[in-house]
């Protein structure tokens, strides 16, 4: 089994000065603006108006557009990592923990609906607005799911698989589900097909069932997912 990711410090918070309600309003407005318009299309003036602050006050908290965006992406990714880690606080068996983590992603999407689109935009950009030193903290957000899978493998509950593969599969499925919500809702309404727009918790249970069944030990299986670098 491939080793779990190395420990890493959490990403820096998106702050350049002591915060409070004003800073939180700026972050909320910036999250919506960047998610809807992308980095190039977003306007600092629009963020300031939505937050109810002038440009001078906004720049008191964040020195420029680039640092506001970078810090915002890192802070939202750190929030995802904390949400996933909190799902493992009770140290339940690995299958139950994965179910909680998948549900936690849905909960975070409901709490911060603009975040999945914000993060996906930056993923499609190749994390191009982040610095090299941001990547250890970014990689740390993969630890909760990967470590849970590794624990399940060690306990004999899961078959040997690269733990990070499970992280990529879960986050890929759940993030696409969250960002496609408006498109699915419209399609469901126009074609009269409710299954196109399922309840998020129902979809989370579906993904959880697929993942935990797929990872479960099956002695009769003849194929295994090869580890990176493994020889035939």
Number of beta-strand segments: 0
* Gross CATH architecture of the domain at 76-215: Orthogonal Bundle
Strand content: under 5%
Principal-axis shape? globular
Tally the helices.
11
The biggest beta sheet reads: none
Global mean pLDDT = 86
SSE series: HHHHHHHHHHH
Briefly note the CATH topology name of the domain at 76-215: Tetracycline Repressor, domain 2
Compute the separation of the termini in Å.
Answer: 15 Å
- CATH hierarchy, class of the domain at 76-215: Mainly Alpha
Stretches where pLDDT is under 50 for at least 5 consecutive residues are 1-18
Structural class: mainly alpha
How would you describe the overall organization of this protein?
It contains 11 helices and no strands. It has a domain at 76-215: Tetracycline Repressor, domain 2 (Orthogonal Bundle), CATH 1.10.357. Mean pLDDT is 86; it is low at 1-18. Helix 1 runs antiparallel to helix 2 (44-51) and helix 4 runs antiparallel to helix 5. It has helices at 21-41, 44-51, 55-61, 65-86, 94-111, 115-124, 135-140, 143-154, 163-179, 181-191, 200-215. It is an all-alpha fold and 232 residues long.
List the helices and strands and how they pair.
Blueprint: H1 21-41, H2 44-51, H3 55-61, H4 65-86, H5 94-111, H6 115-124, H7 135-140, H8 143-154, H9 163-179, H10 181-191, H11 200-215
Helix pairs in contact: 1-2, 1-6, 4-5, 5-8, 5-9, 5-11, 8-9, 9-11
């Amino acid at each position: 089994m491939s080793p779990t990711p190395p420990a890493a410090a959490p990403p820096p918070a998106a702050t350049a000065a002591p915060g409070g309600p004003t800073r939180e309003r700026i972050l909320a407005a910036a999250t919506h603006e960047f998610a809807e318009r992308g980095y190039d299309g977003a306007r600092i003036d629009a963020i300031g108006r939505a937050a109810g602050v002038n440009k001078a006050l906004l720049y008191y908290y964040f020195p420029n557009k680039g640092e506001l965006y970078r810090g915002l992406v890192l802070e939202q990714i750190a929030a995802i990592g904390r949400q996933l880690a909190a799902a493992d606080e009770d140290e339940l068996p690995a299958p139950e923990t994965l179910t909680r983590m998948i549900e936690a992603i849905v909960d975070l999407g409901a709490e911060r609906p603009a975040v999945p689109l914000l993060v996906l935009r930056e993923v499609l950009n190749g994390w191009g607005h982040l610095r090299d030193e941001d990547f250890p903290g970014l990689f740390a957000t993969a630890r909760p799911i990967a470590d849970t899978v590794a624990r399940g493998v060690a306990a004999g509950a899961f078959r040997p698989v690269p733990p990070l593969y499970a992280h990529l599969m879960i986050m890929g499925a759940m993030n696409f589900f969250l960002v496609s919500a408006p498109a699915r809702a419209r399609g469901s309404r126009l074609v009269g097909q409710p299954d196109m727009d399922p309840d998020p918790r129902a979809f989370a249970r579906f993904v959880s069932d697929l993942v935990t069944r797929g990872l479960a030990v099956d002695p009769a299986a003849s194929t295994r997912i090869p580890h990176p670098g493994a020889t035939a």
